[in-house]
## 1
Amino acid sequence: MSKIKMITPLVEMDGDEMTRILWKMIKDELLLPYIDLKTEYYDLGLEHRNETNDQVTVDSANATLKYGVAVKCATITPNAARVEEYKLKEMWKSPNGTIRAILDGTVFRAPILVKGIVPYVKNWTKPITIARHAYGDVYKNTEIKVPGKGKAELVFTGEDGKEIRQTIHEFDGEGIIQGIHNTKKSIESFARACFSYAVDTKQDLWFSTKDTISKKYDHTFKDIFQEIYDTEYREKFEALNIEYFYTLIDDAVARVIRSEGGFIWACKNYDGDVMSDMVATAYGDLSMMTSVLVSPSGVYEYEAAHGTVQRHYYKYLKGEKTSTNSIATIFAWTGALNKRGELDNIPELCEFAKRLESACIKTIENGKMTGSLASISTCENPVILDSLGFIKAIKETLENEL
Ligand code: NAP
Ligand code: MG
């Protein structure tokens, strides 16, 4: 079989620790033998970020804007311990934060479902994708611990000096206050990213806030979504026979639990933070969650939802075998290759991505898996494989399919 040719390069962002080890195994075993892989390589490993004063992260994000599709390995977000461990010049910022700021996107997270790993919510037979607004609200707040009696006010001063002033509360003793904000521009980007992703993946879109209580703040989110839907997306949704549906957050929670899944749930920043952890846990395992950043300009960055699996890496460095699950990282590659295939009109590339995904699922369903999956699988006698052994088992399934 001749190798599949590509036209436009993928932006390849390499990363850290155990996922960096898996990255190379995946390329060597599952991609390079079948694809004439074209990538523009950026090494986001912490050492190279440090050498380049983090310029490499900025360059990789700009390359993503240029080419349109990126695939990213998990990376270390430095903290004090990492500054020491890697002798860093500075505590570099989170690469995901830097990339998100440049691409201005929304993050969509979806579980990979396999038979034998049963969600805690039995009726969830299809994946639920959480779209989390990644700007503002309580994550960019200003807070005051009120020391005692006094008046708290909300004041906006316009460029022309005009004030809008409202009383928050007349305190008769100690208390707390908090100021939060969002921008019309960011909410519009969020809405467009959600509607575009729904059209792209042909799934219904649900959106929920607490607009009955937050009559200006949350209501503005609701209004912006509705206006963008009516003016830009309604026809596309109707043509695909998919639905946009707004409801209160508490009603949404109840409906989500009763649903069979198979839709996108758009959430404000805090709701998305909480709900994505709930949904991920209920579907079984963090190592089976995919994540894609979609910018309003139609740029895509695919990655796994988990981190660099540090504890496994230290075992690996000691020469011990690890049983690290590479599924979410493989799906980051297949997501990116499939998108590249769609954009460049290379059906063989899309087909390959689908076959590789199905090989991953079949391998697990046939009882071959990594340790953390075996511990939650209903499979009778699972064969627990090490990191490379699992990738080789997937390769064997793939070869039988091709
Ligand atoms: P983590 O790497 O996701 O790992 C947490 C634990 O979850 C692991 O210790 C492991 O449990 C289990 N796990 C996660 N992925 C797994 C996989 N593929 N296969 C098997 N088990 C898996 O999170 P962390 O330990 O909190 O963070 C480690 C580093 O990753 C940090 O430096 C953090 O900054 C970075 N991080 C990066 C990203 C990103 O780039 N998107 C996201 C999150 C964290 P056991 O040890 O019990 O086996
Ligand atoms: Mg969280």
## 2
Amino acid sequence: MSVKAKKYLGQHFLTDENIAKKIVDGLSFSNYNKVLEVGPGMGVLTKYLLDEDAEIFVAEIDNESVEYLKKHYSKLKENHFIGDFLKINIDGMFDEQVAVIGNFPYNISSQILFKIIDYYQQIPEMVGMFQKEVAERAAAVPRTKDYGILSVLVQALYDVKYLFTVHENVFNPPPKVKSGVIRLTRNPKEGLAGNEILFKQIVKAGFNQRRKKLSNALKVLNIPESLKLHPFLNQRAEELSVEDFISFTQEWKNS
Ligand code: SAH
């Protein structure tokens, strides 16, 4: 018996074993002993993860998939099943570093990425498959249409590598869009620590009106008097690098 794909859970099961193996090979398995897989479904990635020298945890919301996994992968014990990824408290659940992997449910892609950012201190590495547009947005560089809030917030904390594209016909049922696999390697940029909240506010406000110059887009945050002639304010958000956003945040904080 296999699991019947449920659309409302974003279930598209990967059917290509070589691609599954390639995704798992994207993890380095160094500097951590625990790996959390999000949305394992019928375990196409899990099977390769369980061959590795690491303790594997699975966050799966679908009871039918959980039953399937328990039946087919005896290495997974009761305490390795942790339910809805969006609801778990990662620092309460893991007392050490944990890498994250998954062929993620696409309906909650951005929420998954934002959760990883929120817990970056515990997550040294992530390898994941997203719809291609989301993968590209996470990896985007300045002055492109994909470069936005997601790119800047992710890249402030992680190096992002776009690994490869996956065609829709290797899934059952096939999704409507192509997929992209990316790897995040934790590498928090200097100058961010202690300024995270203001940084997020500036990035969000800047891109929320991305066609306007920052002098206009950031008005909602009451730009400090001493920054009013800052050259960045004559530019649009998409023209600033991640480092520019961080240095601007520091100047704002010190103003
Ligand atoms: N990894 C499998 C399944 C991918 S489909 C494969 O590659 O074949 C996405 C999976 O995410 C489904 O099994 C779905 O039940 C699960 N899922 C959806 N929302 C979830 C959530 N909030 N937390 C954990 N798992 C979730």
## 3
Amino acid sequence: MRKFLSIVLAIVVFSTLVFSAGTIKIGVDFPMTGVVAAFGQMSWDGLKLAHEMYPTVLGKQIELVLMDNKSDKTEAANVASRLIEKEHVKAIIGCICSSNTLAAGPIAERAHVPMVSSASTNPLVTQGKKYVFRVCFTDPFQGKAAALFAYKQLGVKKVAVILEVSQDYSIGLANFFKKTFKKLGGKITGTYFYVTGDVDFTAQLNAALATHPDALYVPGYYPEISLMARQARQMGFKGYILCGDGAEAPELIKIGGKAVEGLYYTTHFDPKMAASEMTDKFVKAYTEKYHKNTDALGALAFDAYLLLRDAIQRAGSDDPQKIRDALENTKGFKGATGIITIHHGDPTKSAVIKKVENGKFVYAGFVNP
Ligand code: PHE
């Protein structure tokens, strides 16, 4: 009888332990399908790797709940609501495109659930918010870095800007670039517009090329950049094509081919950064798992996960409010993409300049804040 009782007791104790151990749910709001699906795939690869390497926190298993925002603003907000209300996640990682994070952020804010964006660079993403953070630099810096590089390193003096009118990222980055470029003494010869899904850019290019720019600055996403580059080259444009972080996806080269050779863009990561011991750890584990080169989105998502996990650890709790407070107090966190200290939701980090060369993205320098 005593033996029986102690077995029963052992079972009760064990199941209570298992039950209370439970899991900590973290939601993921990424564009897995739709126009920028490549962004979601690259980010998810980095996130899965981080989760595989560090699957637990506070003695509990971390459970990632991935939902596809279909590269769409409304869907991005719906996903945030579903993650919070139906899945009861303790925090959210996402989104990628700034416009989507601007739509989803207020939902997290209202529900008091912390959100960490891996890649959204528009300044408004975190501005005036208590629950939204990011691990990437912001566009005032990215635009300035691009302008400095174009003017000083490439000797570009005249630039035509072609931007996407419905993406906050594109509009913001174009403005920040122009501001520094003009301050340096450069000339903006004109600004032209397109929307996502456009495939014919001859009207914009005709007008832009008639102003004889040394370079085109296209702060958009890879699907339109690759097509626009092809058409610009077909029309005989020989100058530089400069872009922001939204250029980086294997599809840029697959679709752009020879037309994107020599294209320069600002971004977040290169193994050469050696930002911390985590850079090498990430590069080694990533190339072993995926047998391909690392990319900015994978590295940023890797860092978003680890930063959030670190905050949960420091909070000593999975209470969303406590996680938020710990996120706000992040200091000197050693990520793969840089050392992160959060100030008003944002870190301060270096930008990498990359170039397309022989069908590959290669390192071409970096700009410090
Ligand atoms: N910075 C882009 C945005 O805010 C997203 C992005 C980051 C895309 C890095 C590709 C690589 O919309």
